[in-house]
Design goal:
With about 170 residues, this protein is an alpha+beta fold. About 40% of the residues lie in helices and about 25% in strands.
Length: about 170
C-alpha cells in the first residue's frame, strides 16, 4: 500500500512466474479503487485466543485458524461502507499504519477546508488527479454492471410473466 496525496493506493506485486522472489523486474499493479483518506476510518485489531477483535468490541472478525502464522499485527480500513482487513508482521507496524492513515486523513481534511497553509506539492496534485480519474472510472464500471444486472432481472421477470400469461385458460 502507498499513501500519497488524498488517496491510499493498494498494489499487488506480480513477480515473473519463473522467479519466486520479488525483484526489480517485479511489476506493481494497482488493485481496486484508491481509498479516499478523508472519508476513511482506521482501527487496530487485537489478536485473542478466539481470533481478531476490534479493541472496543466483543465481536470476532476472523478466527485464529484463518490468520497467517507469520503476522502478529492487524488493522482495518473502512471506507464507503466496506471494511478491509490487513495483516502485517508486527503490532508496532500495524500501529504505524493506523497512525499514518489517521494523520493523512486529518491533513486532507485540513487541506480541503483551507486550514493547511503548507505548500501542496505539484506532483501530488497530478497523482490526486490520476486517483480521481481511477475512482470515477471504477464508479462508472460499477454503475454499468448494476444497470446491466437490473436490466437482466427485468428481462427475466418480463419473460417469466409473458410465458405464464400465454399459458392461460383456453376454453
Amino acid at each position: 500500500m502507498i499513501q500519497i496525496g488524498k488517496y491510499l493506493y493498494r498494489y499487488q506485486i506480480d513477480a515473473n512466474p519463473g522467479i519466486r522472489e520479488v525483484s526489480e523486474r517485479s511489476k506493481m499493479n494497482l488493485k481496486g479503487t484508491p481509498i479516499l483518506l478523508s472519508t476513511s476510518q482506521t482501527s487496530s485489531l487485537i489478536q485473542t485466543t478466539y481470533g481478531l477483535q476490534p479493541a472496543n468490541q466483543e465481536e470476532v472478525i476472523a478466527y485464529a485458524s484463518d490468520l497467517p502464522p507469520f503476522c502478529s499485527g492487524f488493522f482495518s480500513i473502512t471506507s464507503d461502507g466496506e471494511t478491509r482487513y490487513y495483516a502485517v508482521s508486527t503490532a508496532e507496524e500495524a500501529n504505524t499504519w493506523v497512525n499514518s492513515l489517521r494523520q493523512g486523513r486529518q491533513s486532507n481534511i485540513e487541506l480541503s477546508m483551507g486550514h493547511d497553509k503548507r505548500p501542496y506539492p505539484e506532483n501530488w496534485r497530478y497523482i490526486d488527479t490520476m486517483g480521481d480519474e481511477r475512482v470515477q472510472r471504477n464508479k462508472r464500471v460499477k454503475d454499468l454492471i448494476r444497470t446491466t444486472e437490473r436490466r437482466e432481472i427485468e428481462r427475466m421477470e418480463y419473460f417469466d410473466g409473458g410465458a405464464s400469461a400465454s399459458r392461460g385458460y383456453f376454453g
